[in-house]
User: Fold this.
Amino acid sequence: MNTSPDHRTGAPDQRTRAARPARENTRPEPAPFGPGTLLWDRAGDVRLLLSLPAAFVLQVAHPAVGAGVDEHSVFRTDPWGRAHRSLESLQLWIYGGQRAVEEGRRLRTAHRSISGTDSHGRTYHALAPANYAWVHATAYPVFLTSARYLSRPFDDGEERRLYDELLRLGDILGIRRRDMPATPEEYWPYFDRMVREELENTVVLRELLDPRRSVPPPDGSGALVRLLWPLVRPPLARLHVFVTTGLLPPVARDRLGLTWTARDERRMRRLGAVVRTVVPLLPERLRFLPVAREARRAARA
Assistant:
């Protein structure tokens, strides 16, 4: 709705314009992230590669999101390319400076044409506020769960800071604050309701968690990797499914009917102990993802 004209006459109301030099619905440009924020410190760590699939599973467990990925994504035909583009986009949100805002706009534009009908016959659109907000909201529980296994748990103050920063990140992505829970206290009832009332074991979810899923060698692989891929792929696929399932919040695992035993939990804790020990010892060029690594260097300089 246009707020500047006088809708009785169709002419601009000069008194209102004089008293209101800027439009009421003009929002300031979101501030980019920088050193000293939790996302800056943690989102560029290579351990993010282990946790992102769990967030993606939570996203596609929503029928509308799952249908959008099923019908419009190239995750089947170009899995490595899609993963690379998604990871680079995510890194730009946090480490791209002013490019973060541009990437947020590009992402929304790319999603404008994504619509269709889900498995229940309901129409969906990728940018419907509830759908777009859910995709973003999955980051919070996965960040917390992954930290408990793979790095160190967030304390209460850090959990609140993390949530505030995720709301800031939502500003960059064009997610309205009113479409997200305002605080961690409001988030958990929202999350429990979404899991209980919305999530289901979708077609895409089943494919992602099928260790027999056919995935080609990574793009640009050398001859040796291509030769050994039939032998290497099965154990890597099983490890991928195991870690992804393990990093899901237990309430979501139960809702989606995913098996997780006490033995699985012990194995996940042992794997986490190895990751927590080894990753901090890596040199920076191996510990941080490329976009984050360059941003960190630039910040130091």
